């Protein structure tokens, strides 16, 4: 298994935006995904593309939210163009990054087990000098990363909010492995036909994302590595002590997951949004933003303990949250 | 005090101009650098050119373009604020001209204040 080496920088996102602007971490641009088609030969300290949004007018942030995107067709753009500006406007310091192989981050040839993605997050926060407890917000696979990080570093996490996600259980592994097998079969083996279908039925932009996903699967070992990820037991999940918010779409294949999560991790706040599927973040960004703000502001950022004692089910929204 | 390494853009030393043709030229230059990274051929960029349909850019490329714009024009050109008012579909469907107009508006507003 390829491990991140200990000496090299894992990201170049050391610029921070203050005010309401963005900070770019694209570095000297020598390490864009497009420049890394070859197999990875050494221990990989990959370079990750980072974007930050800060509260307006130099206000000190009320909390730090780290937004983690999903697998294959996803990137930090899914946050940047949905909830991120609203979260920053409401007073949060928002940190977004492209996970390895995705978006404008480096795409090493190997090293795609869950643990490696978690180590990337660890090193990213170190590199950005973010020491205090953070709120992790994960969409789909990003939520799996958030759970795993919270298990590895309970002291560094104020709370986790996951959208359409589950921890790395045996059943998660079975599902994601099945998805990756289908992607290999459809997108890689029959790429031209598949992309033509996606373009005709889902639009040009989705086809463009699918093309990038096909390239990721074709040029790296991600489809073999993710299924080799270490799984966690229900006991390990039950030991997570930070507040957890889990949001699902009622029409998603993950519907029902909320009941299992509540049973394994009592105190989890779950929300099921009617009429929504797996892409609820893109489809209902306003609702998701409200839920996240209410949740994050209901947690004490210093300790991660819910301020009111009870889960912040009906915590009032901030004035500018809607 | 955002510092952004000049990445997708070659360093521009002259003071930014707020007229539309100059802004279009600037954005075209950033886009050509980006397309070049993807190994795509030079495409003529006009006000009507659409990011996804015509240039095959991804949403993440628009994020990178936003960084480039801020590096060039400063924080008065706030792309995050611009897109916050748009639906995802509208962002994906953006034309270069819409962005040019936004940059021109932002620069003039900043110049007047």
Automatic annotation (TrEMBL), chain A:
InterPro entries: AB_hydrolase_1 (IPR000073), Carboxylesterase_BioH (IPR050228)
GO molecular function: hydrolase activity
Domain AB hydrolase-1 as annotated: residue spans: 66-284
Top-rank taxon, per record: Bacteria
Comp. bias regions, Basic and acidic residues: 1-11, 29-39
Source species: Streptomyces niphimycinicus
UniProt xrefs under Pfam families: Abhydrolase_1
Record's keyword annotation contains Hydrolase: yes
Chain positions covered by the region annotation Disordered: 1-59
Identification of the protein by name: Alpha/beta hydrolase
Taxonomy of the source species: Bacteria, Bacillati, Actinomycetota, Actinomycetes, Kitasatosporales
Key word Hydrolase present: yes
Compositionally skewed regions (Gly residues) per UniProt: 16-26
Keywords noted in UniProt: Hydrolase
Automatic annotation (TrEMBL), chain B:
Pfam family for this entry, one: PP-binding
Domain of life: Bacteria
Carrier domain location: 21-99
Protein name: Acyl carrier protein
Organism per entry: Streptomyces niphimycinicus
Species classification: Bacteria, Bacillati, Actinomycetota, Actinomycetes, Kitasatosporales
